[in-house]
Design brief:
Blueprint lengths: L13 H5 L35 E3 L4 E6 L9 E3 L2 E7 L5 E8 L5 E9 L18 E3 L2 E5 L5 E5 L5 E5 L15 E3 L2 E7 L4 E7 L5 E6 L19 E5 L2 E7 L3 E5 L6 E6 L10 E2 L4 E4 L7 E4 L7 E2 L4 E5 L10 E3 L2 E5 L5 E8 L5 E9 L7 E3 L2 E5 L4 E6 L6 E6 L9 E3 L2 E5 L3 E5 L6
Parallel strand pairs: 1-31, 18-22
Antiparallel strand pairs: 2-34, 3-4, 4-5, 5-6, 7-8, 8-9, 9-10, 11-12, 12-13, 13-14, 15-16, 16-17, 17-18, 19-20, 20-21, 21-23, 24-25, 25-26, 26-27, 28-29, 29-30, 30-31, 32-33, 33-34
Length: about 425
């Protein structure tokens, strides 16, 4: 679908905005406004503050707020509030809740959509697994085809909403929205439709929609599904919209929706966010296919660049969680076995650096990095802090009463963690 090209000037981004301020002066709620935080990398921006190394139900919990419902959506921060998408277990009520960052007081609790006949979903998923995105005082909630809404970040009132973007998600949706330069990017990879959409973030109107043009390995819709969230990554000197899907990862021009290049890696249910080590893109095929793999796209890739895959690895690779990339190393934890296996690979070669058992259960929540620390939380409520280094080292951890499927958010010295029934703010005792 062709649309006029909007000429948008490149902005220095969040780092340029923060440049005049000291680390301690940075407004915490600007640092984690989408799935996996700044640029979707899972890494907190530099701060003089660090979250605690240890916690429990009685230690280093600044506040704990009930959050009933069933939703794997991760928390984000906007306008001094912690925002969470929510849903009833049967998917008939899709809602939003927001809590004061400092006190945990619930300040927004609204039903956004009521669905008379929800789509089929598996018990392992939820009807609110997509993490919100926020910026310029607005919060964007996305539940897949059932509904997308833009809210005022101060009042929680609806500015616009859409329920006309078709997709039979079949086993439930999970891809999170991406906000970039007043545009909202959405991926729909379902049983029947597979496409990428770009909406005007201020009005909700469609700017462009590009159908996937993928050589799927089979023609059965269940194998065309994916949960991968889009990301903007610099390739050469150009920002590109990179969107994982079943069988392929594709890159689009963020202004026009034109397909730039693709990697045909096989697999299905791709869920992780594409990362970069500065030279290579780190892709993940989900269930099957190449698994985790590094691609050297060059400065101006076009067409099928599958031959540019330089390494592949299935060593401890998760099916759902995303990886962390830092200083030429990849860090991640596995979600297919009990014991919570953590792994470090070399990003240039895919060669193993270390692999160790954490001692917990499966890890579906994506890890986050704060300073030189990696925080991981597993399905049973056990948390771990390990060193982001070439040698495996446990630094701390803690246990909470409920399991965790959502990925944490970071606000200075605070970890915002959603369990299966509550929202926690973990912070040093001095913050109490």
């Amino acid at each position: 679908m062709k649309t006029p090209v909007l000429k948008l000037s490149l902005v220095g981004g969040l780092l340029a905005v923060l440049a005049p301020f000291s680390r301690a002066q940075v407004d915490a709620d600007q640092l984690w406004a989408q799935y996996r935080g700044p640029e979707g990398k899972g890494i907190a921006l530099p701060s003089d503050q660090l979250p605690p190394l240890e916690w429990s139900e009685k230690k280093n919990v600044l506040w704990k707020a009930p959050l009933p419902g069933k939703a794997w959506s991760s928390p984000i921060l906007q306008s001094g509030k912690v925002w969470c998408a929510n849903a009833t277990e049967d998917g008939k009520v899709l809602s939003v809740a927001a809590f004061d960052l400092q006190t945990g007081k619930k300040v927004v609790d609204r039903v956004l959509f009521e669905i008379a006949r929800p789509q089929f979903n598996i018990a392992y998923n939820s009807y609110a697994s997509s993490t919100p995105a926020a910026g310029k005082g607005k919060v964007y909630l996305h539940y897949g085809s059932p509904g997308t809404a833009c809210l005022d970040g101060k009042t929680g009132e609806t500015i616009w909403s859409r329920q006309d973007l078709p997709c039979h998600h079949w086993r439930g949706s999970g891809a999170s929205p991406l906000l970039y330069k007043d545009r909202l990017y959405l991926t729909f990879d379902g049983f029947d439709y597979q496409y990428v959409a770009c909406l005007d973030a201020n009005t909700g109107k469609t700017i462009w929609r590009t159908d996937r043009n993928i050589r799927y390995d089979v023609d059965f819709g269940d194998y065309k599904k994916a949960y991968g969230s889009p990301a903007i990554r610099m390739v050469g000197n150009k920002p590109q919209l990179i969107c994982p899907a079943a069988c392929e990862t594709q890159s689009f021009d963020p202004d026009t929706g034109a397909l730039l290049w693709s990697v045909h890696h096989g697999g299905m249910n791709a869920a992780s966010v594409v990362q970069s080590d500065g030279t290579r893109l780190i892709l993940h095929s989900g269930d099957g296919g190449f698994s985790l793999h590094g691609v050297d796209p060059g400065s101006d890739p076009h067409g099928d660049i599958t031959p540019k895959v330089v390494w592949k690895s299935n060593r401890g690779v998760p099916s759902y969680a995303s990886v962390l990339v830092r200083d030429g190393k990849l860090f991640f934890a596995r979600d297919k076995d009990s014991g919570g296996t953590a792994t470090c690979l070399d990003s240039a070669t895919g060669a193993p650096v270390w692999q160790e058992r954490l001692g917990g259960s499966k890890v579906h929540a994506s890890p986050v990095m704060v300073g030189d620390r990696i925080y991981l939380f597993d399905d049973s409520g056990q948390g771990f802090v390990i060193a982001a280094s070439e040698k495996f080292k446990k630094l701390g951890g803690g246990k909470l009463d409920e399991g965790c499927m959502a990925s944490p958010a970071v606000a200075g010295d605070k970890i915002l963690l959603r369990t299966k029934g509550h929202l926690y703010c973990i912070a040093p005792a001095a913050a109490h």
